[in-house]
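Morning run. Coffee first, then this:
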Amino acid sequence: MLPMADQGRWFKLWASAPSDEDVQRLPPAHRWAWAVFGVYTKVHGKRGSVTVSSANHALAGEMSVPNEELLSVIQTFPHMTFEESEKSSRCLTVTWNNWHKYQEDTTMARRQQVSRSKRRGEEKRREPPLPASSQLSEAFVETLKNNPAYKGIEIDRELHRMDAWLATPANRKRKKTQRFVVNWLNRIDVALPPGTSQAKRLWDEAQREKDEARP
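And here it is:
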């Protein structure tokens, strides 16, 4: 079973081809035939290898060579290897040297790589910002835990609750600054021990402040 042809749309005629010494040795008409045969290989061959029959009058017409001279002209082309068919002397398998180097579309891989990098960048920008826990110093958190105003509040649990709140789409632009944390904690109502009134707690706090202010 013959391999499926490349069916390529482009044959790359490199800028160095006209100055190639081996190509220059061809008669001017055969230089055109050489380029046409490259196009034929790209369409009907597989990775730079193609089998040609001496009865391929269409190819001979495109190359502007006599039908009976088709295979002999092809065998004068440089940078190719030739192998006659074991079954018929009227068929010739031609393989272009360095076909992959000059004809494979290596830019496709680069375009795909750039496209993937671009998509990863867009996805990263769409990701919600990481919680700002790292912006709080350990000393600041420890100060909160030792502050009598926040007695009865589990500081670590509240910090995690802040992270969850900030991770929601509506709050992604907010940051967990020290001011944000203090405002959050100040809005928490701490349950009083049984039998303790709000007025008594305020009185006790006022008395403690007075005692601390005395020399």
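The chain is about 50% helix and 5% strand. Good start to the day.
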